[in-house]
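Bench notes, afternoon.
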Amino acid sequence: MRVQHERRLIVVGLSILAVACTRVELLTSDPFPPQKPELPCTTSGDCSMDVKVRIASDESCEVTTEYKTVRVAPKETPDMKWSIDDSLDNKKKYDYQFINLPTASPPVHGIEILNNRGGVFTYPDYDGGRKKYKWKNNHQSPMPASPFDYEVNVERSLKGASNWMPCKRIDPRIINE
């Protein structure tokens, strides 16, 4: 009896160790690089940013932006551009694109400007395919730092397939001064 009891303890102990090792692996998946705090945009300057995508250990698709906030100086009217960067997807088994569901209710596009008061942002469009998206910022008059939250809507599919699934949505911010 004593030998069987010791064997059970060893088997149970190895099972707990295996579960603990698996849990550690799930918790240590590569994190996104830290977001840069702010992108200053001007009419003459570049106002482009990356949207980074990756697959988490549970196979869900995660998205983040390169910058937490985009800041536009008074009377600047830049073309704001977002590009999908899949360099963090080390599995390389998925394709990514901005969502385009114009007939959905409500419509869903790659970049959705929330509370677009007075039509400050116009001409939304996919820029050279569905891996890039742009908006025109018609910021004409100085205003108290006016924030505009926006949604980043990306979807993924197995390479060569057409079974597109949405990634987790994020909501960064644009501030017009």
